[in-house]
């Protein structure tokens, strides 16, 4: 596995420079691919940062009050454990307690979360990048997850396209998203100021991107999707 430029897809060398001259940075144990994308990076952070601050507590409360979040993670651990594993929107990296991997990448746009992740899981490669243009080589991952993140993006289907691109043939992915469903999802979407999509939106995005849907589970307003990259 090696990094590629999130703008033009050319390889990134040891000095974190792409063939077309884009420069990236390694700081505080983080590979930072948003460092020179001021407009894009900042706009994205501005939009998402306030949501991040509010997300974990209410989410934890909601999920644990109806279902066992720990059980979802344990199940993800057995489904996703593999050699090369990528978690998109990893936050403080909780999933790395459950997923066993040799080459583990945690990706997020928040430097704060990635710093916490590095302290807890020093073996995980911390990458700061946008979920809709991953600095990850095509067909290099055995498994990819994205929990509680995709519904917050302007264009979730672009992120699903990227997940498919970086997966090896037969590689696995698991996605947990908030979908338009009931009163709870309407409340959460109002609170987080996001526009929710119907479950069919995600199912179509998966099927249109060479991914086979293996399993769908509904947890209240949350939808858990397991899929596999076509060979
Ligand atoms: Zn470049």
UniProtKB/TrEMBL annotation:
Keywords: Methyltransferase, Transferase. It holds the Pfam family Methyltransf_11. InterPro entries: Methyltransf_11, SAM-dependent_MTases_sf. Gene3D superfamilies: Vaccinia Virus protein VP39 (3.40.50.150). It comes from the Archaea. GO terms for molecular function: S-adenosylmethionine-dependent methyltransferase activity. GO terms for biological process: methylation. Residues 86-173 form the Methyltransferase type domain. PANTHER family: 2-METHOXY-6-POLYPRENYL-1,4-BENZOQUINOL METHYLASE, MITOCHONDRIAL, METHYLTRANSFERASE. This is Methyltransferase domain-containing protein. It comes from Acidianus ambivalens.
């Amino acid at each position: 596995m090696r990094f590629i430029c999130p703008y033009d897809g050319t390889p990134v060398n040891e000095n974190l420079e792409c063939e077309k001259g884009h420069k990236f940075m390694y700081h505080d144990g983080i590979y930072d691919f948003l460092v020179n994308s001021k407009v894009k990076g900042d706009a994205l952070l501005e939009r998402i940062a306030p949501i991040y601050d509010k997300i974990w507590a209410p989410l934890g409360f909601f999920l644990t009050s109806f279902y066992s979040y720990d059980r979802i993670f344990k199940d993800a651990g057995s489904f996703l454990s593999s050699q090369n594993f990528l978690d998109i929107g990893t936050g403080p990296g909780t999933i790395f307690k459950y997923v066993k991997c040799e080459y583990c990448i945690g990706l997020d746009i928040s430097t704060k979360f990635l710093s916490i992740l590095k302290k807890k899981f020093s073996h995980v490669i911390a990458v700061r990048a946008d979920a809709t243009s991953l600095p990850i080589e095509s067909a290099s991952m055995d498994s990819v997850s994205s929990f509680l993140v995709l519904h917050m993006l302007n264009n979730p289907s672009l992120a699903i396209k990227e997940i498919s691109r970086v997966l090896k043939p037969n590689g696995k992915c698991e996605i947990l998203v908030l979908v338009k469903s009931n009163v709870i999802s309407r409340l959460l979407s109002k609170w987080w100021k996001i526009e929710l999509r119907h479950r069919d939106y995600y199912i179509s995005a998966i099927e249109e991107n060479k991914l086979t849907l293996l399993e769908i589970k509904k947890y209240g307003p949350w939808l858990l999707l397991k899929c596999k990259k076509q060979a």
